[in-house]
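WARN retry 2 of 3 for item q-0093 after timeout on previous attempt; input resubmitted unchanged.
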Amino acid sequence: MHFILRNTIKIIFLLIGFICKSQNADEAKIDTVYNNLYSRTPKNFKVDEISKPNNRFFTLDLNSIGGLRSVYQFQDDLKFNSTEINWLNKQIDQIALAFYLEGKPILIRKVGGYDGCPDVNVYTETIKRKKVTILNFCFTCSGAGKLDKFIQIFNNRTNSLLK
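OK item q-0093 returned
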């Protein structure tokens, strides 16, 4: 199990390396904005250490959208129990709240599939008279379903605050 997970992670990093190497300067600037937002910890967000389940995967950096997404998408493979999944769901909800309280509400959109991903993966829209950052999660034809609940939890919290 550990060997398979380690090899999967190596392959993912290898693919990311090839993708990053093939981008031009303008795409790199756009990706920098995306990556900064994706890996940023909002001021008001702190991982709930008190009720955090004792799981070695929860010792990873879970202070960002990217960190939470990384662990969340492998929850089936890592065989998380309901307590661990509920804790993760709460962290997703709370990070969405923290971005909103900072004055930077975010909504996540699932893009990609057969038509591919758009050129812009982060942009702003005005929703209910508020400036909202849209963060695209780009997927190939498979694998998008693993994050449907993650996106739903995050967006439900943001949408409820935008009302």
